[in-house]
């Protein structure tokens, strides 16, 4: 028998957007719960421990002007450092490998010393016990005849005055049943909006030392012929742990992928690249709670931050809050925080009368 519970707000997803929205709502005194389908928090903030630091398998950087993420890291006491830029660039094409002077790929950016997912862990640690509920996928969201929304999970129905959906719109439409509650225009938009990193595999390769730096290389490379289409240095602030990372199409992952990656790295960076200490392959398209089916076909990034995702729906009670819905910095951690801020403000600014008068 399903259990029934009532709350002011239910937040769907405990990535950085969902956690930030939850924190703002809890701070404002709203009875809020955050439901996460996975058995971990962080969403696309995922880091592998690699003492004395960590290796980011998802989001990695933030940039100048992204004040929300900078302020959050400072408030939470999370150390950051500058991305390594010094050195030359490698370019791989049909003619072979060329070395070009200077770093032509990376821009000044900052990284998180303990890994990007430290943001999520620190933010969640500030929330009251039982606010974040893991292993709790949302299966349906419907309007209640008596007002508010019903949020269904495999074991319970939660009654909420308002809901914040802090997962990619395409994922929400694939995993959550809305019935005929959403407008056809919004359904079309949500189903065709790309998922940031949803169609890529991130490959992180750890080495005993950052040997490429000793050769005057930045660790930055671009390839038109290899599986890894772009590469960057992912070493820690003092070069430890030493690592390179690159992005490949998730469709390329399969038998022989790891060997082909190592061969490409050896071709680019020399024999030392053929002997990594560890190799991580994070195929985001294979993450059920990140990517919907056929995520590779979603390629129109101009849909990020669409006006339809800037305003509440379902009688003004459902608010979108993933990085894909941000009007600025979409696809970045800053975009996730921007969308969370907008959604929380929308929840807090609507009076009951305004909620009831909002259009669908």
Automatic annotation (TrEMBL):
Parts of the chain that traverse the membrane: none
Domain of life assignment: Bacteria
Every Amine oxidase domain range: 110-348
One Pfam family linked to the record: Amino_oxidase
Name listed for the protein in its UniProt record: Flavin monoamine oxidase family protein
SUPFAM superfamilies hit by this protein: FAD-linked reductases, C-terminal domain (SSF54373), FAD/NAD(P)-binding domain (SSF51905)
Family: Belongs to the flavin monoamine oxidase family.
Species of provenance: Streptomyces bluensis
InterPro entries: Amino_oxidase (IPR002937), FAD/NAD-bd_sf (IPR036188), Flavin_MAO (IPR050703)
